[in-house]
Records
---
Amino acid sequence: SALLIGLTGGIGSGKTTVANLFADRGIELIDADLIAREVVAPGSDGLAAIVDHFGSGVLDEEGQLDRAALRQRVFHDDQELAWLNALIHPLVRTTMVERGRQARSAYALLVIPLLIENGLQSLVERVVVVDLPETEQIRRTMARDDNSRSLVENIMANQASRQQRLDGADDRIDNSGDLADLTQQVDTLHQQYLTLARNHDS
Ligand code: ATP
């Protein structure tokens, strides 16, 4: 089964950009945000459990999860929020690991924005962090989404700090340079992970 590498980084740090460079090298990506949607898609056990618990008021006309309605139900209720997280988090974790292990590439990259926040290091063999000084992180996120500085700063205040992420990671990709610089770092890590993958299989 494929070796699992976890990729993380703060908002606007360049996770998607970096993940796509690994994909260009034939590495399968498993995206936590996509899996989180999949485990509550129509027909899933996850959605059935949510409807069982909260009632059909959390469904829209098409039978999809109405995220706004669900948010209303858990927003001011820590117990309901805890119930929801206790349902969703294990589903996402096991699905990601299963999917990663089934990957056909030499290793699989699990893209997990909140890997450090949720303490998920043990799911993967190594953690690589996309690192950027906070000032540049804010600048790029504002430029990309046309977000206000205060919104971006607020999101960052609720995420791990740059230092916490570096402390929790095995490898670091410095994304303060240009795309050529980034590509070179990805190439180097990719070779290291291929070597690890060979030892992992034997
Ligand atoms: P989010 O957590 O918000 O989804 P992310 O970590 O996936 O973000 P990206 O979307 O890859 O980050 O990058 C954020 C923005 O910065 C994008 O507009 C991207 O094009 C740009 N960007 C990424 N790397 C660089 C770089 N080395 N130089 C300049 N701009 C960059």
Note: The chain has a mean pLDDT of 96.
---
Amino acid sequence: MAATSVVVLDRGNNTTCTINLHGATVVSWRVNNQEQLFVSKQAVFDGKKAIRGGIPFVFPQFGPWTFGPQHGFARIVRWNLEKAPERLASGDVEAIFSIMDNDFTRSMWNFSFRLTYRLILREKELHFNIAVYNPSKDLTFSFNMLLHTYFKVPDVRRCQITGLHGCTFIDKTRENTCYQEGRDVVTIGEWTDRIYQNTPQEHIITNVVSGRKMRIQKYNFPDTVIWNPWVDRAKGMTDFGDDEYPNMVCVEAGHVSSPVILLPGTAFEASQILQVM
Ligand code: BG6
């Protein structure tokens, strides 16, 4: 076991971001001492299982996978700290993480790749810049990617999510039936597992911690997944408390309903900004 497994970005003013190198999972984001992310009290930190909460990194597969674990391997491998936290001239703090192919990844997905994940902590914002590079001279590969963000909320039933009106969604709770969203704002009052397609660049979630709003801005992530397991499915998860489902909502920016196809020698870039309003 390597010694350090968490990396902390500290902007001052009790504003911090903590990343566990297991999966480069963001496990805490505090703004003025107020935690913004949900992590289950039953989350397992054994360096094997994906961490239940925070922001797991889903790559190169979203959902069940014939060749490896659900949601791919990026969330269960140890990432490298490419650049330790450094204060920028603006006062913001930056760190960079990376993974590349090795025997383990090649046993599931036999491609060379390099994935870099840059985080910048601002006063009330967290910025994510992602790049995937295909170093091959002749092989094209395809993949899914998603930031599986678990927002902490006092009561999910009081949250409204904007930016989904008119979007087509695949409802995983109804055998992947496709529907069109007719509501101006989406609310959650039951088991919800939906892939909204071609969503706009911005969503706002109301009534997150301290009654505030959370703005999500995303670039090159055409899909938005909304997930809450609700009571029965919460009971079925060993690493999620039975009574925790009202305190989280997953609003996940991703490229999942169609794959990213990456030609030899090219790179894919995507980003997200979370902002407490
Ligand atoms: C969501 C999926 O993104 O992740 C759900 O849409 C899934 O279908 C959920 O249940 C949690 O997945 P996991 O593998 O972390 O239990």
Note: The longest helix spans residues 103-108.
